[in-house]
């Protein structure tokens, strides 16, 4: 009897472990949004301590949502280009909202305090938000930093218009000659269809919480 | 006195020679060739080549570095069986000397080393494998004689690489 009980206990434990591991498994890149999907809104803590949501931007036509972080070499290479995007497009209706979804336990350089420091020292002109639960990265299907989602407001909905890289040369801004995000936003501003709607975002994998 | 000093000098010279020699041979064993995608593609598609295990890594990628010893061990174990391991660094070319070569020397890497000097990833990534999202570590195993290839975008946990390799060559 004791034996049977212990077997049942083991089986139950295993079942529980399977459930837990499934529940916490990061979504694969096949999941998340595709172009044309309606993206979820969010409300995340900015480096100034206030919470920011796309809903706060009443006059925006859409958003350039950039999943990025402090620590990835690719994010560092794109830092000033992300800022330039915001300076160029915020007034035209497409502000940048940057989101850091890295788990600071796995990557201590991405703690909230470090985010505050970086945003200050680099004089970010855009909100730099912490996705503490990683739920936003998961629902968007973001896997890397930097990973961009251009969203267009259609009524109350945020429609995904572009997913991928910022341009075609991470290493050297001045050698880039295809500007995926700019091309997408320009098309949206002109009311034209976006030509290249999906590219592969190159960078570091988002550091997920360890289950 | 004179004799012993001469002997001492001889020994010193010989020691220096040996140290230098050893250093030179490790350096040459760990040279890193800078290539572009076309050259890499030639390596991938070359006919009647050994079975090739091609790992994409970078010095800044922690999980890549963690799994590198598995690639080195695989190479040591199977290199006599018509296979080779090729480590393709995705580091930027300006970090060739200060990062990649230094790292290769420190870890005494024995596998073949390349640095892929490409910046427009979207122009070649699908040609390596359409399912590759662009994240590293990533590994391609190619058997050109059997026209077979398999791609992994993941970090191999301990023992997983050898199992995957053995499954592939079955």
UniProtKB/TrEMBL annotation, chain A:
Q: Which PROSITE patterns match?
A: THIOREDOXIN_2
Q: InterPro entries under this entry?
A: AhpC/TSA, PRX-like1, Thioredoxin-like_sf, Thioredoxin_domain
Task: Enumerate the spans annotated as Thioredoxin domain.
Answer: 33-190
Q: Which CDD domains match?
A: PRX_like1 (cd02969)
Which superkingdom heads the taxonomic lineage of this protein's source?
Answer: Bacteria
For this protein, the parts annotated as crossing the membrane are none
The record's annotation in Pfam families points to: AhpC-TSA
Q: Which PANTHER family match?
A: OS07G0260300 PROTEIN, THIOREDOXIN-DEPENDENT PEROXIREDOXIN
- State what protein this is by name: Thioredoxin family protein
**Organism listed in the record:** Reichenbachiella agarivorans
TrEMBL record, chain B:
Using the record, list the residue span of the signal peptide; answer none if the entry has no such feature: 1-29
Q: Which UniProt keywords apply?
A: Signal
The Thioredoxin domain, residue ranges: 18-170
Q: Which InterPro entries match?
A: AhpC/TSA, Thioredoxin-like_sf, Thioredoxin_domain, Thioredoxin_ResA/DsbE_sf
Give the SUPFAM superfamilies listed for this entry: Thioredoxin-like (SSF52833)
Gene3D superfamilies (alphabetical)? Glutaredoxin
Superkingdom of the source species: Bacteria
Q: Does the keyword Signal apply?
A: yes
Q: What is this protein called?
A: TlpA family protein disulfide reductase
Native source organism of the sequence: Reichenbachiella agarivorans
Q: Species lineage, top-down? A: Bacteria, Pseudomonadati, Bacteroidota, Cytophagia, Cytophagales
